[in-house]
Design brief:
The longest helix has 20 residues, at 134-153. This protein has a five-stranded mixed β-sheet. The protein is globular and about 50 Å long. The protein has helices spanning 4-20, 44-47, 54-66, 84-93, 134-153; strands at 27-32, 35-41, 75-80, 97-102, 127-130. It is of the alpha/beta class. Helix content is 42%, strand content 19%.
Length: 154
């Protein structure tokens, strides 16, 4: 049986694709049972699209694959806690579970800065589990931003 840790390792592989493209290293996949329905990695710079976050691309691919914008019974795995845009998309798609790696205290919308996935005002709630492979996910982001700062300094 494939575990949340196994799926998060795959999300980390996707995050490394983003990093290789010079994008913030975040990877995501949508799974139903043992089947990957869609995957994505951050590409807003590459695609010149402010909504091209890993989660959004994974949701789009999954919806296209199942030919439905509703993704009930699915789990979205992502290496960083979703932002408000992505969290709202998870709710509207009716994703059942969200499993993420690193918390985002500045923009996280699954319990850190905001809690859109559990908000009473929303028409759906997403079961949420944070901190899966938190060290690996967090370290990838820390290294990326440290390298970016070092490059700016000269």
């Amino acid at each position: 049986m494939i575990t949340d840790v196994d799926w998060m390792r795959r999300a980390l592989e996707l995050a490394r694709r983003a990093e290789a493209q010079g994008e913030v290293p975040v990877g995501a996949l949508v799974v139903r049972g043992d089947e990957v329905l869609g995957e994505g990695w951050n590409q807003p710079i590459t695609l010149k699209d402010p909504s091209a976050h890993a989660e959004m691309l994974a949701l789009r691919a999954a919806a296209k694959r199942v030919d439905d914008y509703r993704l009930g019974g699915t789990t979205l795995y992502v290496t960083l806690e979703p932002c408000p845009m992505c969290a709202a998309a998870l709710v509207h798609a009716r994703v059942q579970r969200l499993v993420f790696g690193a918390w985002d205290p500045r923009q996280g919308a699954a319990g850190s800065a905001f809690n859109l996935v559990h908000a009473r005002e929303m028409n759906h709630r997403v079961d949420t589990f944070g901190g899966v492979l938190v060290d690996e996910c967090g370290e990838l982001l820390k290294r990326f931003f440290a390298a970016r700062r070092a490059a700016r300094q000269g």
